[in-house]
Design goal:
Elements: H1 4-13, E1 21-23, E2 26-29, E3 32-35, E4 38-42, E5 45-46, H2 55-66, E6 71-78, E7 84-90, E8 93-94, H3 95-101, E9 106-107, H4 116-125, H5 135-139
Parallel strand pairs: 4-7
Antiparallel strand pairs: 1-6, 2-3, 3-4, 5-9, 6-7, 7-8
Helix pairs in contact: 3-4
Domain TNase-like: 26-132
Organism: Stella humosa
GO molecular function, one term: endonuclease activity
């Protein structure tokens, strides 16, 4: 068994070393996509979940951003649920950046500062969940 341990460690690490994931995506929720059976959580953002008041709107906005076009996703590891964490692009458009800019996700500073400027822009413009009257819905989020 001691001889197998290093090989088992390598096998567990292999998915994190995989190359880009490309193809048409299905939207699971505002910050999670599925490409060819691989669940992908967008890096450094947090969108309302489907069971939360704004979850359906975040999912719809993600579908509009993707616009039924193929994505190119660059994996950055896995989350605690074993989803692939990645930066996904539709052409040159960073999907997460656009979702945050439209106000339907937050920059998740715990995991990176990549999208703080887009969140600040959305707040200043009152877009998406930052629109007037959305305070109660925002307050009900699990990840404030």
């Amino acid at each position: 068994m001691r001889l197998l341990a290093p090989f088992l460690l390598i096998l567990v690490a292999l998915p994190a070393l995989a190359g880009p994931i490309r193809g048409p995506a299905r939207v699971a929720d505002g910050d999670t996509l599925v490409i060819d059976g691989t669940r992908i959580r967008l890096l450094a953002i947090d969108a309302p979940e489907m069971g939360e008041p704004l979850g359906g709107r975040a999912r719809l906005e993600m579908e509009r951003i993707i616009a039924r076009r193929p994505l190119d996703c660059e994996p950055h590891g896995h989350d605690r649920y074993r989803n692939t964490v990645a930066v996904c692009r539709r052409g040159r458009l960073d999907v997460a950046a656009e979702l945050v800019r439209r106000g339907w996700a937050r920059a998740w500073r715990r995991y990176g500062l990549d999208y703080v400027a887009q969140e600040d822009e959305a707040k200043a413009a009152g877009r998406g969940m930052w629109a007037p009257g959305m305070e109660a819905a925002r307050a009900s989020r699990r990840h404030p």
